[in-house]
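hey can u check if this looks right to u? its 138 residues, i copy pasted from the old doc so theres a chance i mangled smth
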Amino acid sequence: MVFRNAAGTREGKSETNSDIFINLSQGFQVIFASPAPNQLLTVGESVDILLQSPEEATLRLFENGTQVAQASATTSLSYRFTAEAEGTVSFRATAEAGEQESESELRINVAGPSPVLPLPPGQKKELTIYRIRRCFWF
């Protein structure tokens, strides 16, 4: 972060004349580094789920309440999720480091295949392209 006076001619620095850094961390927490929230998959697609913690902890990942992955004394945990049925899948991540605990949640929506209806009776599969030429006189 840069601090300047109203005229913009002076810059605020630390005691050692270096830049000022502010830690914006909310403390101990576990986050879903990927995928992005509200991910939409279709049945059969896969996505990598990555959990991260600011310090070493025991990380656990639950899919619809069932534990699917765990790692101890680590800052990250990865898991490959493959969508098997349509609906909403809920993930819960937990991190424990000594007395500190944190939880985070993620939902992934899974869509089924798009319905394909048969052609109406008497119709054929074809593509018609019309070429229209226009002339403009000025």
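Residues 27-111 form a domain with the Immunoglobulin-like fold (CATH 2.60.40.10).
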